[in-house]
Design goal:
heterodimer, A: 116 residues, four-stranded antiparallel β-sheet, 11 strands, globular, B: mainly beta, 46% strand
Chain lengths: 116, 112
């Protein structure tokens, strides 16, 4: 595809339910990032993938959050037992490489999650 | 990663140049300056980046001071569609996962 895509675009769930958010990076991009943006706030880094491995998970807020990536392509962010404070926009970005040579990240439109 | 300081908000008249400043006084020699913007309800959009030389592309120009402690993003002819939050980010060239650390940015309001 031409850009990073994310699905669903909006998700409303009840407290305590599990949710899965999907990210399709730009074809050929080896690095993939998840960020979270609470209402009126800046972006917070969650996790970074290089290929299928995740060398940096330092931003995951709790063990209810996990992510995986298969085949250097699609990534899924899973939030278990959702809480109201999980309500936010979850953004995915990809880049051809990570870190070195100042690789540029391109963002998807985000998934807006509302936990009731 | 170096921290950046930006004014919280700015106004600009449509058709005029918008000059958005950013201070990054603790920037290291191997850190790039990146600019992104976020239009309401959209994901961040890459604008431009640079190391020490001034850069220009179809969207904007980036002016970096000689000591690299500050920079200015210039939108030469602002339009109403340029109304957005603009983020200045510094990021290492290497030895880093590449994660971006976003501050609060500058909310640019372009007025007719």
């Amino acid at each position: 595809g031409a850009g990073v895509s994310q699905s669903p675009s909006n998700k409303v769930t009840e407290k305590g339910k599990d949710v899965e958010l999907r990210c399709d990076p730009i074809s050929g991009h080896t690095a993939l990032y998840w960020y979270r943006q609470r209402l009126g706030q800046g972006l917070e880094f969650l996790i970074y993938f290089q290929g299928n491995s995740a060398p940096d998970k330092s931003g995951l807020p709790s063990d209810r959050f996990s992510a995986e990536r298969t085949g250097e392509s699609v990534s899924t962010l899973t939030i278990q037992r959702t809480q109201q404070e999980d309500s936010a926009v979850y953004l995915c970005a990809s880049s051809f490489l990570a870190g070195g040579q100042g690789e540029t990240q391109y963002f998807g439109p985000g998934t807006r999650l509302l936990v009731l | 990663d170096a921290k950046t300081t930006q004014p919280p908000s700015m106004d600009c008249a449509e058709g005029r140049a918008a000059n958005l400043p950013c201070n990054h006084s603790t920037i290291s020699g191997n850190e790039y300056v990146y600019w992104y913007r976020q239009i309401h309800s959209q994901g961040p959009q890459y604008i431009i980046h640079g190391l020490k030389n001034n850069e220009t592309n179809e969207m904007a120009s980036l002016i970096i001071t000689e000591d690299r402690k500050s920079s200015t993003l210039i939108l030469p002819h602002a339009t109403l569609r340029d109304t957005a939050v603009y983020y200045c980010i510094v990021r290492p060239y290497s030895g880093n996962t590449g994660k971006l650390i976003f501050g609060q940015g500058t909310t640019l309001q372009v007025k007719p």
